[in-house]
User: Fold Thymidylate kinase from Stieleria maiorica.
Amino acid sequence: MFDAAELGQRVSQREFKEREVQLRTKLLTLQYRTHELARFPVLIDFAGVEGAGKATTINMLNMWMDPRFIRTIGYQKPTRAEMARPRFWRYWRDMPPKGGIGLFLSGRYSRPLLSRVYGDIDEPEFDNRLSEIIRFENALVDDGALILKFWMHLGRTQQEERLKELEADPLRSYQVSEEDWKNHEHYDDFVAAAEHLITRTNRSAASWHIVEGGNENYRHLRVGEIIAAELSRHLEVQERKAAEDRPPTRVASPDMPKVDTVFDALDLSLSVPKSDYKKKVPAVQARLGELGRKAQAEGQSTVLVFEGPDAGGKGGAIRRTVWSLDARTYRVFQFAAPTDEERAHHYLWRFWRHLPRAGSVSVFDRSWYGRVLVERAEGFATEDEWRRAYNEINDFERQIVDHGILLLKFWMHIDKDEQLKRFKKREKSPYKHWKLTDEDWRNRELWEAYKQYGQDIIQYTSTKKAPWILVEANNKPYARLKVLQTVIDHLQEKLDGPAGRPA
Amino acid sequence: MFDAAELGQRVSQREFKEREVQLRTKLLTLQYRTHELARFPVLIDFAGVEGAGKATTINMLNMWMDPRFIRTIGYQKPTRAEMARPRFWRYWRDMPPKGGIGLFLSGRYSRPLLSRVYGDIDEPEFDNRLSEIIRFENALVDDGALILKFWMHLGRTQQEERLKELEADPLRSYQVSEEDWKNHEHYDDFVAAAEHLITRTNRSAASWHIVEGGNENYRHLRVGEIIAAELSRHLEVQERKAAEDRPPTRVASPDMPKVDTVFDALDLSLSVPKSDYKKKVPAVQARLGELGRKAQAEGQSTVLVFEGPDAGGKGGAIRRTVWSLDARTYRVFQFAAPTDEERAHHYLWRFWRHLPRAGSVSVFDRSWYGRVLVERAEGFATEDEWRRAYNEINDFERQIVDHGILLLKFWMHIDKDEQLKRFKKREKSPYKHWKLTDEDWRNRELWEAYKQYGQDIIQYTSTKKAPWILVEANNKPYARLKVLQTVIDHLQEKLDGPAGRPA
Assistant:
């Protein structure tokens, strides 16, 4: 695979100067067009053998292009904040906005590769890690992103010469570490693992480009020219798509035929007398408070998601749940229209941002399911977009759960009559009328559609790792106790193990 | 001062329930009005003696109000990311947006107070720290913020009893630490320092409220009722103001009489032959690269600010400066219209956000001076706003410099003819025409006004700590070398000391 990158390619200084002028003009023009279109981000990754000049080429790209729209990031060992979140959190955090370019060094490929070379993970686990990366890249590519991946190569002897040459230069000897020499000893393992990695993760719109790294002039030009060619191709496609954009039109309709859903099977008459509720709730909240403190001490994080019809009692259930927790350890997020910073990113970005730090609780009052609810109903997401969202969401939630975070998804369900009753009560209430908007009445017309969208959600996203908890919510005391008790049971199991008993 | 808060105030459970209903309705209504108006943030600070129940009252407020628009933050020892920035960075970072409420525990008053109690700082230094806080609060209050500060009080004996009571309760004993008892021993010092602190930092719109903490019911209601009263008063004023809002009208005029400015004294004929430039630049950049690596290793951060007329060569100078640095260690920020997240905050917020992490460089291509340039010219800032901005800016820069960050402010100046020449050249250039907008031509009409605004800037903000460096920029090689050399000289002095010599 790498033989073609050990040919000793060179470009003379004179040729470099000539080609550089043209290339720079081209890159800048493409960069400004990309910025202007603001329709997709560009992610450029640099990997490869030590000494192949990744960093200097990155500097050169910053010089050639307009650095105001570029973000360059080199990753190191995860920080504490990063360790508290799933592995890909930091890559989501550092995602360039649509129209921007990100240059990444020692990024998502670095750790799996080195872990494999040094035998810390076996081949199946290596493949798992690569599959994770593929899913990450797919989500971005499907959303329009351009991903370019460079493998900067040097032959074994070239590498040795290069490291020695750097060490001899007092201005650059700092670039060579002991680890580099250690890696050099593992050159063959490294190249074998790299070949496996590249084969597995190469796909159009997220393709690998192997570049011979020995000669600086050649390397700079080659990388720049590949970027120019790929970006140009991608821009044309995206500009054509932009020209075809139509304003969103509402898809959901009030006269949808009724079908049976999982919600129809719920026994909404379930209730708890108010006096019982009042008797039970202090003990339940005390228990939750205790578990909350334990979770904080042990660094156990929790994500709570609340969905369901308007006026289903999400807010009330949330308040009763967080009530017994220390206010410094939780945050409640509500998601209305995205801010323009959020709009400039993949739709999942604004949820990734809010995953809890260690030992904390993030409560989502409405969530990423907006993609397959309101965005589907209002046509903000195309059919392609919301259809693939189920998978993207499953993958997102899998990462949360696999990281050890407790994820609970509550669907607070009421029937249509109960909703009307609550809307009317809100209208009259001195403070709750703030909670009722024209939008709510408008959504109510789409009751049937939203119910069926909900059915799809339960069908596609109630997974073993992240099941939905359906809450019969016509009776508020019943619903609130069910939510509280569910959080307690799961948190207890997380903290004490399945057979655990409260201390 | 605290005698009036040692009366043993109590509220019975029945009275509490009655007043709570009314209070909650009031608080929620006020909160939604505040959210709707989205014109000012509310910052509520909780300080006071240990055991006075700050945390439980904060929890109660979260219960009473809508937690989606509240952010509760408790501060601990600064993290590494926080240490790398000036002291107030984390308070700026956590600022609630306009329309939101922030509840803060162990916030900006905590450290100065404890440092004083334990004798780590003397009284003049204590006063300095308090003055810093006053300036911070003033900037926010002037911008419309409502700041409320609660001092939760317990008498000496009350405190002792309270701590013992907590210790005896197995569910709450975790709330009492050894440090609490240690603080209790210093009760008198603590109260004396607190009295000084409160006296010094009390002002309307950022006032202290002393609340007796012994009885939970009394404490909750008292805090809630004060918030309701103050917020209601503030809202009325702000709603009145909002009704008087006019759309911005351009203030700057093309036919401003010419006056002599500091820029007229510049010798814009200064130049360096291109061949000289080419000869000199590699050595200069190599030196800067070396210093950059040293700065990174030693954690020395740098902030570079570039202002001046359009086409003054800011972009070119920035590119040549960052060129020799490792792309992972710098970021270039350009400031066009604020995003809506930025618009929801004080105008300095978006610059505070981008202060560099340890050992890094933040380059601002246009900056906070927009407040006294474009915002002044276009009427986006009122006269009051831009007039007080000079002080706010001085204070911001003082904090940067006092923290040990190297701050350099470059004003790249060209004359009107040179600008025209460059505009025309840009129009023709295959890639630079992206850089030329109608806005640029429009601003050019206001040349005289901007020159005088620049004069004001130099006059008010060229301080000893943060002087402006005027760059004669008609000749690009001259200007670029001057910028590069200035950065080198200052960085070298920072790293090696005034008498230092390059290694």
The first helix of chain B runs from residue 13 to 37. Chain B touches chain A through 46 residues (CB under 8 Å). The mean pLDDT of chain B is 92.
